[in-house]
Design brief:
This protein is an alpha+beta fold. The protein has 13 helices and 4 strands. Strand 2 (154-159) and strand 3 form a beta hairpin. The longest helix is centred in the middle third of the chain and has 59 residues, at 174-232. The radius of gyration is 51 Å and the shape is rod-shaped.
Length: 397
């Protein structure tokens, strides 16, 4: 196969490498802005970290943390209370609501004043003043400032689902930390006892008021019934009507027997027989008496005040219904009063301390490593943001 010859008309171009201009890479060197960034890194990150580390390791005094945990419990109701139609639920208390009250009390200024009366918190927490201003208070601190510092030294957690309250108290020495924790537990028990006393007092007062009202209502209903009986001279209109119905039934039986005797006599005797006329008069007399007895049920003079039986029965049934309702109300109020008395005799709410105040052996606060790390992290983030802002403005300019 013959080799193809190159076309002399096609101009050959030089290689690409020979057409590119020669450019040498310059050596990187530190500029003024780079030194400024490093200086900013040292000032904004390194210096705060050194200051915080020096303060926490050389100036800040150690703090010991004592912990405790408790929950409010309610005494379970017995079977006798369940038989009273749920009266124990009406007289009971809300455990969750009392837990909320106790949680708020432990964060209030009152608990600070109570503990201050037993343990000199100002003298204890001002021992490092003014060398340690971040974790101590001045000796002439006001109660408001002491309460604010107290919230830094006391950590509270509250689980609303279970009602468990955990408490952590920090102090300069282990004994004081446990003493403050024990004092807070004792004052919490006092609050629960006060709630019990208030609940017992209110429960007894309400039950007694309901019982007095029920007694007055029952007395009024019975007095109204006695007044009715004295006015009508009838103890029981229903029994009186039953007696009249008995008389009417007896008359009807006599009338039926008289008709039978009259029929038998007329079959064997003449109409002029004196016995026939006597039976006829007897029948007429019985029929008149039956008519009079039936008329007396609607007559206006069945009592001394000319009252008919329908009006008499309506008034009697109303008074009887009032008296039965008053009696039922009295029995329920009496049962509630007895239950309130029984519940008042024992404590319904109590503070169950499942974790006794601990005696710490190691100073866990202040958390030096964590605070230094957080200081470095946030300082570095601030420096990085400022560096990005600087380069963004520099590129746009």
């Amino acid at each position: 196969m013959a080799q193809q010859k190159p076309d002399p008309k096609i101009t050959r171009l030089p290689p690409i490498e020979s057409r590119l201009p020669e450019r040498s890479a310059r050596r990187a060197r530190m500029r003024r802005r780079h030194w400024g960034l490093l200086a900013g890194l040292f000032v904004m990150v390194g210096l705060p970290v050194l200051v915080v580390a020096g303060y926490l390791t050389q100036v800040a005094r150690p703090q010991y943390a004592s912990e405790t945990g408790f929950v409010i419990r309610q005494e379970e109701a017995g079977s006798a209370s369940q038989m009273l139609g749920g009266l124990s639920q009406m007289l009971g208390q809300s455990v969750s609501g009392n837990s909320d009250l106790l949680f708020e009390f432990l964060q209030s200024q009152e608990i600070v004043q109570l503990v201050q009366g037993e343990i000199d918190l100002v003298a204890h927490y001002s021992a490092g003043w003014p060398d340690d201003p971040l974790f101590s208070i001045p000796p002439d601190v006001l109660i408001e400032d002491l309460a604010a510092f107290w919230k830094r030294m006391v950590r509270l957690t509250y689980d609303r689902a279970t009602g468990v309250i955990t408490l952590q108290v920090r102090a300069r020495d282990p004994q004081t930390a446990r003493a403050i924790t024990a004092a807070m537990v004792q004052h919490s028990e006092n609050v629960i006892n006060d709630l019990n006393a208030t609940a017992r007092r209110d429960s007894m007062a309400n039950a007694q008021a309901d019982l007095d009202e029920a007694v007055a209502q029952l007395r009024a209903a019975r007095e109204a019934m006695l007044a009715f009986q004295a006015r009508t001279m009838i103890l029981d209109p229903i029994a009186d009507i039953k007696g009249r119905m008995g008389v009417l039934d007896n008359l009807q039986q006599q009338l039926a027997q008289a008709f039978v005797d009259f029929d038998l006599l007329t079959q064997t005797a003449a109409e002029t027989d004196p016995r026939v006329r006597q039976l006829d008069r007897r029948i007429l007399a019985i029929e008149e008496r039956i008519a009079q007895e039936r008329t007396s049920f609607s007559a206006q003079n069945v009592t001394v005040d000319n009252t008919d039986y329908p009006t008499l029965l309506a008034e009697y049934e109303g008074l009887r219904a009032d008296m039965d309702f008053a009696a039922e109300t009295y029995r329920a109020a009496l049962a509630a009063h007895g239950l309130a008395r029984t519940r008042a005799a024992r404590q319904q709410l109590y503070l169950a301390t499942f974790l006794r105040p601990t005696l710490p052996q190691q100073a866990l606060y202040p958390q030096t490593g964590l605070l230094i790390a957080l200081t470095g992290f946030f300082a570095f983030m601030l420096w990085a943001v400022l560096a990005l802002v600087y380069y963004s403005l520099r590129d746009r300019g």
